[in-house]
Amino acid sequence: MSSSAVHFAEAPQLTGDVRLSIEQVSYAYAANPTQAPLFTLEATSFQARPSEMVAILGPNASGKSTLLKLIAGALAPLSGRVLLNGFPTHTLPPRTRGQRIAMVQQESPLLFPSRAWEFVLQGRHAYGRTLRFETADDVLIARNALAQVGAEHLSNRWMDQISGGEKQRVILARALAQQPLLLLLDEPTLHLDIGAQVDLLDTLRRLASANRYTVVVVTHDLNLAGQYADQVALFQKGKCLRVGPPAVVFQRELLEQVFQTSLTVELSSSGRPRVSVPSAK
Amino acid sequence: MRPLTLSRLLGYCAVLAAILFIVVVVALKMGAVPVSLYGLGRDLIRVAFRQTSQLSSEYRLIIFDIRLPRILLGIFVGAALSVAGTSFQALLRNPLADPYVLGVSMGAALGAIIALIIEPHVPLPPEIAALLTPIGAFIGAVLTVTAVYFLGRRQGQIDTLTLLLAGIITSSFLSAVIMLFMYTLSGGNFRGMAFWMMGDLSTPQLPIVNWMLRVGFFLGAAAIYTTAADLNLLLAGEKEAMHLGVDVPRVRLVVYIAASLLTGLAVSVSGSIGYVGLLVPHIMRLIVGSDHRLLLPTVAFGGAIAVVIADTLARVVVSPSELPVGAVTAVAGAPLFIYLLRRRIV
Amino acid sequence: MKRPLGKLRFSKTVVAGASALAFLLLCVAPAGWPILAQEPHAPALTPPLAQAPAYKDVIDELGRTIRVPQPIQRIVSLAPSLTETIYALGLQDRLVGDTDYCDYPADAQKKMKVGGMINPSLEQIVSLRPDLVLVTKGPNRLETVQALADLGIPSYATNPHTVQQIVSSTERLADLLGAADAGSSVGADLDHRLADLQQKLAPYPERHVLFIVWTDPLISIGQNTFIADALRHAGAVSIVESSQDWPQTSLEEVVRLQPEFLVFAPSHSDSAQNEFDALVARPGWRGLDAVRNHRFAVISDAVNRPAPRIVSAIEDLARQLHPEAFAPHTLDENEKKSPSAVPADGFFPAKESSRADTSQWEACVCAH
Fold first, then answer.
1. Is residue B173 pLDDT above 80, yes or no?
2. Chains interfacing with B (3 or more CB pairs < 8 Å)
């Protein structure tokens, strides 16, 4: 088993409309032009369709968040392109980007806290003209978004007075309010208990198919990726080692090499792999 | 859910405008020379109908040529400082930011001092000579804003933390230079300068200066208002704002330039009046919330009301002498700030 | 096109139009309403005269040309020195207002106060309906003068840098106010006294003195000030050579230069004793011969004001620095001419004392 860069040939050929296409994207950044680049993302390629969930999986510092930012268009790739329906995400004007791509990530602390409904309404910002107030449609969409994540009862609460899990749902509702094509999440399950984690991913799965989102989730949680993702892209130190359905990617030797620990992989009845740690000797 | 609507915005503005009107009338009435409300009202109506020849002579000069221009000056200075303070608090994501945190007031003070030093050596007619101080102050402000901008950039864009640090350091440096220059000023100029630096509305400005202040205020405030919705999102976080569709570099640049312009104009005509740009935003936030589409117009009114009240007190408390208005805002502002801090509102 | 929420409907164009209108109105709102201020020197402010008022163009000491009504009946003074000058010229009846700091003579304190020198109340000045406002460069600001001009009130500025200029300034002021006789009489008296002093002090070398304005930090006066000139007239020279008006110097420098006398001009004579005792007790000051030998001279703070009374302070100082020049018989003559001179027995020990260092310093019966 060699760890080689993924080529197009290895990635599953997708039929039907490809929404998101990552083509030979690489990235490096240096704090100082004279220094050597501190981090590199080597040429990566894969594709995703509407209603599909992709998990970007790997240990810490493997380039996952960088890739997510490249997909979001927040960073410009050093080489290659990230295409959303054929348009490079980095060159999208901010307003358009706000209407197509929604990002859910660890929130900066709120300076002047607002109510949950105000927070969700922020998602409609990209749809408004410069000097305008929210319309009835905006309010409706925001309300729907909260309903879709099961947080309607939180609508009037202050953001700094709700629990972590509840906040996560409201943040997701804001992303939904953007009515995006692409929904990106950066380690969304990090601070959630197992029940909340399952809840979140069930919701994501449901929304992905109901609203035809393309969902890209960055995670290091093997089992969640295995259970919910349609495709997994496995990364180690900036290199994408394999892209494909979980059953294909979760090969024991590959996983052990990436995560540097002994693992066992079992296939469940549904065809999805389950990873566990062997019992202590 | 009650999102902001135009009617709510106009409602708040109408109430505040009414309060401002009442404050202005009271301010017109009060001063070293007593004026009756009846006489005031009668004169105002006469002037409105251009019947100047019938005006009771003694007081009209006082009211219309001294008090009213001064009150208008206070309105625009207060509004400019409050809008600038609100903008900087949003731009720098810092509730302690005030219009002077980026060094504009120090730059303006230095410009004014240099103008004062130059003035005796330059043969100018008195009307132009009186312009030297505000022009010098404004040039000083502009140069400082430009310098801080270039110091505050990273990778070609304004970076919040770097900007704040650059502003603070520039402010300190200019403050030291000002101390040096103050030393070289002769006695009378020194006291005049010290008075100016504390914030002073007592000097009537030339019409051209008043024009520039008013037009500049409207332009700057309008420019900032176009980014009001963006500022709401910026406060939620810069990364998030970008993903939500805000053009962050453009918004930062527009707000920086416009808020600095407002501060520079205000400081050029009135010195550094303190606490207004810091406290009025917080107080109005308590009343109307953090939505900048509502907050920005209301702080403009709030700042105008605050400064007119402070200036009236400055004129009246030790009559016929006057306090510098900055002293009044400091004496009132500091305890108020402590109170807000204790209540964990700031 | 979606309608905003809320019961009222506001068309965007109406709002934009209303805002633009408000904007225009506020911009053209009085920036100083020209209709009122440009009336020729507000004749309506003064009671209607029997005949049309006459005007005269004069040039003040800053080279400005101002237009003053004739005759000048109502004057506001914005500096204590100018108030004193008015009183010295006997024109105090025409003085309708002065500053909070105008305390000499005592009658000046009863005049209507208009505030400080830097920041007088324009309202108060206007309400007094003056024909002329007197200012002096230094304490008074150009902005005040300009503001008064905009309100139709002319200001006359003085700017004396030497004692001689103080005298001629007084005479010019008297001319301006139509009291040329009083002016020349006061001027002649001052000239005479100065000439007299000059003659008496001619044989004696100048005393090197340190004129102390402030002790913490140590501030003295510059060469171009009228105070320095006053010292010269009193047979002294300031050891501090500086073109700044209020130079700051260090004790080291003073010790190096070893002035023969320390000169003080306190504003309150009773606090003078305490100040000096405190000064003498400080470390470093004992290094001065003048301190060890108690060579102090205390004069009234009239020396700080460019007004006729400065000549009395000069004479007073001359006596303290050159007692040998003032033999008793000369003293009587002087006493007749300047009643404000210091009485001999109150301060000056008597003819036996030489210019040596045995003269005890006493609390000065400061001339006022």
1. yes
2. A, C
> Based on the structure, what is the number of domains in chain B?
1
Say whether both C269 and C336 belong to one domain: yes
User: Looking at the domain assignment, is residue B3 inside a domain?
Assistant: no
What pLDDT was estimated at residue B187?
Answer: 61
Residue B24 maps to which CATH number? Answer: 1.10.3470.10
What residues in B contact C34, CB-CB < 8 Å? Answer: 207
Contact call for C5 and A134, based on CB within 8 A: yes
Tell me, what's the ipTM?
0.84
Q: Report the neighbours of C using a cutoff of 3 or more CB pairs below 8 angstroms.
A: A, B
* Interface touch B236/A99, C-beta < 8 Å: no
In this prediction the pTM is 0.81
- The reported pLDDT for the residue numbered A182 is 94
- C174 vs B234: CA distance, rounded Å: 69
At residue C207, the 3 state secondary structure works out as: strand
A123 touches chain B (CB under 8 A): yes
The CATH number of the domain where C236 resides is what? 3.40.50.1980
What single string gives the DSSP state of each residue in chain A? -------TTTSPPPPS---EEEEEEEEEE-SSTTSPPSEEEEEEEEEE-TT-EEEEE-STTSSHHHHHHHHHTSS--SEEEEEETTEEGGGS-HHHHHHHEEEE-PPPPPSS--BHHHHHHGGGGGGS-TT-PPBHHHHHHHHHHHHHTT-GGGTTSBGGGS-HHHHHHHHHHHHHHT--SEEEEESTTTT--HHHHHHHHHHHHHHHHHHT-EEEEEE--HHHHHHH-SEEEEEETTEEEEEE-HHHH--HHHHHHHHTS--EEEE-TTS-EEEEPPPP-
Residue range C149-201, pLDDT digits in tens? 888 899 999 989 899 999 999 999 999 998 889 999 999 999 999 999 999 88
C158 vs A14 pLDDT, higher one: C158
**All structural domains of chain A with their residue ranges:** 1-85+181-246, 107-180
Determine how β-strand A214-219 pairs with β-strand A53-57: parallel
To the question of domain A1-85+181-246 being in CATH 3.40.190.290, the answer is no
Q: Range of C248's domain?
A: 205-347
Interface membership of B246 toward A (CB under 8 Å): yes
The pLDDT score that the predictor gives to residue B293 is: 93
d(CA C251, CA C277): 17
Evaluate whether residue B336 is within a structural domain.
yes
Instruction: Give Cα B107 distance to the centre of its chain.
Output: 15
Assigned domain for B209 exists: yes
What residues in C contact B315, CB-CB < 8 Å?
A: 121
Instruction: Write the pLDDT tens digit of every residue in C35-65.
Output: 343 333 333 444 544 556 688 888 888 888 8
Comparing CA positions, the residue from B92, B108, B76 lying closest to residue B301 is: B76
Tell me which residue range forms the domain holding B96.
13-342
Residue-wise pLDDT for C71-88, tens only, equals 889 999 999 999 999 999
